Known about the structure:
By secondary structure, the protein is an alpha+beta fold. The protein folds into two domains: 2-46 and 284-423, no CATH class; 67-264, no CATH class. The protein is 47% helix and 17% strand. The protein has helices at residues 2-11, 13-45, 75-94, 141-144, 249-257, 274-281, 285-316, 318-326, 331-361, 365-368, 376-379, 384-413, 417-423, and strands spanning 55-62, 99-106, 116-122, 130-137, 164-168, 174-176, 181-183, 189-192, 199-205, 220-224, 236-241, 266-273. It has a six-stranded mixed beta barrel with strand order 3-4-10-5-9-8. α1 crosses α9 (331-361), α2 crosses α9 (331-361) and α9 (331-361) packs antiparallel against α12.
Amino acid sequence: MIRHIFKIIWNERKTNAWIVLEYILVFCVLWFCVDYLYYMGKCYWEPVGFDTKNTYVLEMQKKPDTSFNNTEGNGETEVVDKQALAQTFLNRVKNYPGVENVCFSKWAAPFERSSYMSGYYIDEDTTHNVTFRLRWVSENFFDVFRINTTAKEISGWDAPGTNQILITPNREGLFGNEEYSVPLEDVKKLTSSTSDRKEHTVIGSAEKMKDGYFNSYFCNILLPLVREEYDLREMQICLRVSPGADKDFEERFTKEMREQLMLGPYFMSSLKSIDKNARITNWPTDDLNGIYAITAFLILNIFLGIIGTFWYRTQARRSEVGLRLALGSTRWGVKKLIFGETLLLLFIASIVGVNICINIGHTELLELLDIPIANRMDAGIGNEQEFINYALAFGLLAVISLIAVWYPARQAAKIPPAEALRDE
Length: 424
C-alpha cells in the first residue's frame, strides 16, 4: 500500500510539493518551540535541593536614626545585644501556633537573587583556584528545608575554631568547575585562596542545589553562621509551618506578631511564601509567553491549512475516489488511503526538516535573532534531545493533520460512485 501511495504522491507532485514545503516550514518552527518547552519543563521539574513547600521568608527592618548601642556604644556591647534580640525573636516565632522550625542564614535562602562567591583550593592542590558559592546557615536550616546530609553530626559545628563545612556537588556529582573537579567523597579539606589561607574541614555533603528553577547546579560550600554574626536586619529568616496551618498564614502571622516582633530597633517588614515568590521572580514570563503564542498560532494555522488543502484535493479527486469505490474498494479503504498519503507527506517533510533544524542548531543564527533557545549543557541534556524533538514535533503534527483531514476523508468516502463518475 505504501508503494501505491508513493505513486499517487509522485503523480500529484506539483501540488504535493507545496504541501511538503509548508510541512517543512512548520516542522522547523515547531521543532525549536518543542525544544525550548521541553528544556523549560525539565528544568522546572528537577529538584532544586530544597523543600520549599510551606516555607516562608520573614524580613526585618531597622528603624531609621536609631543607635543600637545601649550604654557606652562599644562594639562588644553591640554584639551581645544583637545575639540577645535574635534569641528573643527566635523564641517568639517558634512559639507561634503552626510554626515547626525557624532558621537564620546569609546568602543561602532558596531563590534569592543575591549570592556570595569565593575561590578555594581543594585538598592539597594549590594550582587550581576554584570559585564556589558560599552559604552561611544556622543548624536549623537543614530541618526547615529538609535537606539530607551525610554529616554524622551538625549540632555544634559552629563552635569557634572548628572550621567545619558541608559541600554540594554539581550535576555530574563532582566538586569543582569545568577546568578542575574531583569526586565529591574524596574532598577532605578546602583552603581559602584569600591572603589568610584559612583551612576548612569537610564533614559531609548535602544534596545538589541550584539558585532557581532554570539555573544550573553549582557547587556550594555551607558554612556555619556563628552567633556573633546574628543581626535580624542582615540575616535571611526562614520558617516552616505545618501543612494544616498554611492557609492564610501570611495574613494571620503579620497581624498577630507585628507588635511582638518590634525588638529594639527592629520591626517586621514582610512575610512571603517562598514558593509563591519563586514563581514570580524565577519565571521567564516573556520568553514562555512568546513560545506559547507561536505554538498556538502554528497549531491553528496547521489545522486550517491542512483541512483546506485536503478538502480541495478531495473535491478535485472525486472521480478517482468514485472509481475506487466502483472497483470494490471499501469506504474505510478510501479513508486509509487519504490518511496514509497525509502521513507519508509529513514523513518526507520531517526528514528534510530535521536536517535543517540540526544544522541551524549548530550555528548562532537563533541567538543572533534573539530567539529563546534551550541551554542544554546547563540542563544536562545530551544528543538524545534530537530524538525527543523529532518524536514530539512529528507526533503533534501527525495528530493535528489526521484530525484536520478526517472530515474531508469522511466526505470523500461517502461519495456515491455513480455520482462521482458522472461528474467526471
